[in-house]
Design a protein that fits this description.
This protein has 129 residues and is mainly beta. It has a single domain, classed as Immunoglobulin-like (Sandwich). The chain is 10% helix and 44% strand. Strands 1, 2, 5, 6, 10 and 11 form a 6-stranded mixed β-sheet that branches. A hairpin with an 8-residue loop joins strand 7 (76-86) and strand 8.
Length: 129
Amino acid sequence: MSRHLLALCVLVLLGCGGSDGRTQVSGTVLWKGKPVPLGSITLEPDASRGGRGPQARIMINRGRYASRAGFGAVHGPVVVEVDGYGVPDRSEFPVQLFPPFRFTTEIPAAPRHQLDIVVPDEKPASRSR
């Protein structure tokens, strides 16, 4: 094998995004049509569908989030959990806007993936006695 071909193969292997088995994930998070002010997103491999690997936790700031390189989501099926918080006008402490929102999706084996999330505005079902 020529040196040039070998060098090209090495560059291709090194240049392939996601070589660490993770995809950088970013996007927006909306609730009631507005950006979620603060919060977090957890992407956990869905073991029930064959997902394996470490989880990723990404902070939400002003309705946007983005994982850092090497700390994104593993490829394949994942369970996503969204926690959202806001700061009322007269408080210094964040308050939970909605119960944790969970859903499943697939993360592609790609360098980057855009995942925009709309948290449903569901009111808890009333309990009958």
